[in-house]
Amino acid sequence: MAVSSITTPVSKSRPRPLTWARKNPSLALGCVIVIVLALACFVFPWLSSTDPNAVDANRRLEGMSPEHLLGTDQYGRDVLARFFHGGRISLLVGFSSAAAATVLGLIIGILAGYVRWLDQVLMRIADGLLAIPGVLLGIGLMASLGPEVGNVIIAMAVVSTPTMARLVRSRVISVKEETYIEAIRLQRPNFFRLVCLHIVPNILTTVVVQATFVFADAVIAEATLSFLGAGVPPPDASWGNMLSDGKTLLFSAWWVAVFPALGLVTAVIGLNLAGDGLRDMLDPKNARKLR
Fold first, then answer.
1. Segment 249-271, tens digit of pLDDT
2. C-alpha distances out from residue 57 to 46, 70, 75, 133, 246, Å
3. What pTM does this model have?
4. What is the 3-state secondary structure (H, E, C) of 199-232?
5. For 175, which of 40, 62, 119, 126 is 20 to 30 Å away at the CA?
6. CA 124 to CA 247: how far, in whole Å?
7. 248, 74 in Cβ contact below 8 A?
8. Which domains are present in the chain?
């Protein structure tokens, strides 16, 4: 008796490595912009021997040349070196403050959304912080903490945490009312086990998307504080204090202010594009189209 063999046809279609980029160009373009800019800012200072704080009074406000590709500022310092060193500080401050605000907002939002009596205490504190404009709150914190890079990170984290906490709280309240969460709670599981295994995974996508926007806002806020003299202290460079140094030189030495402004705009556009792309990719309504 002959046994007939049944073979399953093998699909000849292979996954295309750039399919996700074609279907979600916003995410692809945003990631490319942020990665390229970050690599340039963090790698260039290691490869270049130019001191960004070296003063040369004889070469003040020189235009672009082979020796100084982006010219020099009013103190004779190389603008290209200060651009990349300043970008490193601005991106580092923005990323660190966004990461701190995300972690703090996640913890505060979970406690407020899950424990009712803590909700009234934590959200009233968050409302009080949100009632103060972010720039004024940041200036006040920097005035009390002192002009240091670490204090800028702390100030930006405090400014950004209430918004993240309120978002996480709203998602936790929505998730904990789901039927499967109610069924799990009937089994009286450990609080940390319930939160880590069942609540956090269901709100993590929203938190990740919001974190990209917090990152962009933190970069802008750091530049604003540095521009006003309350951020990264000189002579350390950041895009904000470079803009402050060049604001009076726009008509005589435009390169001092234009290039850090372009770096700031490019970073914010890249982060917002990446955030919009992540939101579209993680949105269930667009999941089928982007798959």
1. 888 889 999 999 999 999 999 99
2. 25, 17, 6, 40, 17
3. 0.84
4. HHHHHHHHHHHHHHHHHHHHHHHHHHHHHCCCCC
5. 126
6. 40
7. no
8. 25-40+78-290 (1.10.3720.10)
